[in-house]
Amino acid sequence: MNRYARPRTVWLFLVPALAFYLSFVALPIAQSFYVSLFDWPTHAAAPARFVGLENYARLVNDGVFWKALSHNVALVVLSLVIQLPVALFLAALLSGRVFARGFFRTVYFTPMVLPTVVIALVWRQILLPATSAGLLTQLLAWLGLPSPADGFLGDPRFALLSVILTISWRYVPFHMVLFIAGIETIPEELYEAARIDGANARQLFRHITLPSLAPVVRISAVLSIVGSLKYFDLVYVMTGGGPPEHVTELMTTYMFKIGIDQQTIGYGSAVAVAGFLISMLVVVAVMCFRWHRRPAVTEVHP
Amino acid sequence: MRRLVRTAAVVLLAALTALTACDNRGRVTTARTKQITFWHIQTSSVTREATADAVGRFESEHTDVAVQVSAFKNDPFKQKLSQAMASAAVPDVFHTWGGGRLEAFVREGEVADLTKAVEADNLTKRILPAALDFATFDDKVYAVPTDVAVVVMWYNRSIFEKHGIAPPATFDELKSVCVKLRRAGVAPIALGNKDKWPGAFYFIYLSTRMGGTRPFADAARRAPGDTFEHPSFIEAGRKLQELVNLRAFNDGVNVLSYDDARDLFINGKAAMMLMGTWFLADIRSDAPELLKTLDCFAFPTVADGRGNAGTIVGGINAAYAVSSRSAYPKEAFALLRELISEASAMKWAKTGRIPALKQEAVDGMLDETVLKAARLLFAAPEIQLYYDQYLGPRLSEMHKSTTQSLIAGTITPEEAAREMETLAREIAAKPKSDSP
After folding, report:
1. Does residue A235 form part of some domain?
2. Is the torsion defined by CA of A214, A215, A219, A220 positive or negative?
3. Cβ A129–B393 below 8 Å, yes or no?
């Protein structure tokens, strides 16, 4: 049986989106792969030279790429560990009967509506050295606490962590909104029944809110992982991958450096493709993992 | 009712379209039968206007020529021009920075030889020889420079006077000035090296003072036996790290941007700043009162340095070349002449730039502060072009990032030199893979 009464209409509606997707997403990805097989200095007059997988061989031996990848992994792990719990906590807090709930929801949501560049510049100013009016370092000095002379962003020991915390600050509200939406779909009866059984607030959260939210948490986790693997903008504006060279480098900022700054589009594309494959691999792994855990929601509430 | 509104809207739209069509048709057609295309990168309001003025003067004198002007931002321009060269759709007149990039186009036969035109026009008598050098290859002139920028050490005279310090003439004096200022609680030199180019000035100056301009030119050209591991580069790295170690720079050098560093200087938290003459335009708009105490001195000389003490680091902000494919080379050259005419030079000087003319030709045009830097330029026997403008994109990135690492102390001068040399060799082995 055909589920759709008029398949032609379905196609008619699909075609524009599909054409858009194919020409602006699928085709460029394929093109990147093609370009990555060439030694192609865009700026030079020399023609592109086919080199097969030479760029990938170079990539495997490129310490900076592995370093960048390790920073992406750190970003993935810390994003999961920081963003989701904080977002969940805020969502739980702002779903209950809180004073001025709408106001607080709006306030906590603000980072989400600020342009990335604004966030980057504000946090940069917070994390700069005290002599350049860095807010945090000045505050610490005022409290009589030590802080790095070069500021948190200028000190190689703290630079990566500083950037990751800023990224977390920006994305917590996003997950918070997802969680609030999830919490609001939980039937009130569940809570009532549990309360009659004598459950306290913590138990309500642990045995009703959390399990019911599991699907949303998984979506959040997937989005957070993918986002962390292809992250670019805040880092680019805040540190440019430094300071000095490569301390906060991510796969994408490295790709930008090679492809755009050094005008070496062949090798730059190889970095891009490697980043794409790694992200794809992780996403597929996470998605598979998700299907296995499917029954989690129902098992708690028979 | 709704129908009526819709009909009215359609009628209105149709009327508007008809009106605009009339306007197009109604315009007077001129007898401008020759068309030349002109690409430049003057996109700020003042410089764009100055350029448009020159084009206007040219068009009013040449009533049969229409100039089609396109203004691009820096980086898109580089790409556009490379593409245009590859597809042979080259603009008649185009912007260039001279140096390596222009030379590469010259070698491909894309640029018209202007030597005779420049001499016939007595332009050589007016134009600053050091600026013309950037556009001269094998004694042939390929572009006409219009304005130059030079890098000098700016300092806040009131801070110097307060601590009883005189501008240092030698590197050792500079070091002791830095120590003195540090002790007094002032950051001696403002440097924001996040974007890597401001720190590169130190490396360029130090190696030029150590070994002169030859080692770099030879290493960049891959003359046999010449290398980026030349002692002058290694010594430049060492001296730069000496400055870092005695805390000559402000905190957070590697994370601060040019703007952050400029703020330190403006707020009196730092006493000196090694920067190009464009710095003045920023000071004029952000802190005009500072102009009274703003002064500059030449980058200090180094003991047993073989370089010329007066060599100044700088470059041409703009020069204009004519395509060898131009259908109207005469008209194109006439446009160049207008771009460096007395009237244009006046306009340039008003925007705070230094026209690429000899001292006597710009007499009275420059204001006092610009003149302080310009005097160092007029006295200079040669200009050392910024390395990153001379080199291809890969080597230039390597030069800037190794210098950043030197300043961060994560690399030794020997390692920095070796990295440059290794990449230069790799590129030389594959001709044309990193042309500037």
Report:
1. yes
2. negative
3. no
Q: Is the dihedral of CA B287, B293, B297, B303 positive or negative?
A: negative
- A149 → chain B, closest CA residue: B251
A198 touches chain B (CB under 8 A): no
Interchain proximity A263–B393, CB inside 8 Å: yes
Q: Choosing among A137, A236, A263, which should be mutated to test the B contact, i.e. which has the most B CBs within 10 A?
A: A263
Asked, for residue A22, whether it belongs to a domain, the answer is no
Question: Total structural domains in chain A?
Answer: 1
Could you tell me the pTM of the whole model? 0.80
CB contacts of B264 in chain A (<8 Å) are 131-132
pLDDT confidence of residue B235: 94
Is the per-residue pLDDT at B19 higher than 50?
Answer: no
| B434 contacts in chain A (CB < 8 Å) | 41, 43-44
Between helices A159-184 and A84-95, what is the axis angle to 10°? Answer: 40
Return all residues near B133 (Cβ < 8 A) that are at least 6 apart.
B382, B383
Give the model's confidence band at B350: pLDDT under 50 very low, under 70 low, under 90 confident, else very high.
confident
Mean residue pLDDT across chain A: 86
Q: Residue A71 domain-assigned?
A: yes
Which pLDDT value is given to residue A134? 87
**Domains within chain B, CATH numbers bracketed:** 34-148+315-370 (3.40.190.10), 150-313+386-429 (3.40.190.10)
- The C-alpha of A70 sits at a distance from chain B's nearest C-alpha, in angstroms, of 20
Specify the range with the lowest mean pLDDT, choosing from B310-314, B360-364, B368-372.
B360-364
A263 neighbourhood in chain B, CB within 8 Å: 393-394
Q: What is the pLDDT of residue A41?
A: 65
Structural domain includes residue A26: no
Count how many Cα atoms sit within 13 Å of the Cα of residue A168 in the half-sphere of its side chain.
20
Cβ of residue A153 closer than 8 Å to a chain B Cβ? yes
* Structural domain of A215: 38-300
What does chain A come to in residues?
Answer: 302
Residue B16 has pLDDT above 60, yes or no: no
CATH assignment at residue A286: 1.10.3720.10
**Helical residues (DSSP H) of B148-196, grouped into ranges:** 157-162, 171-183
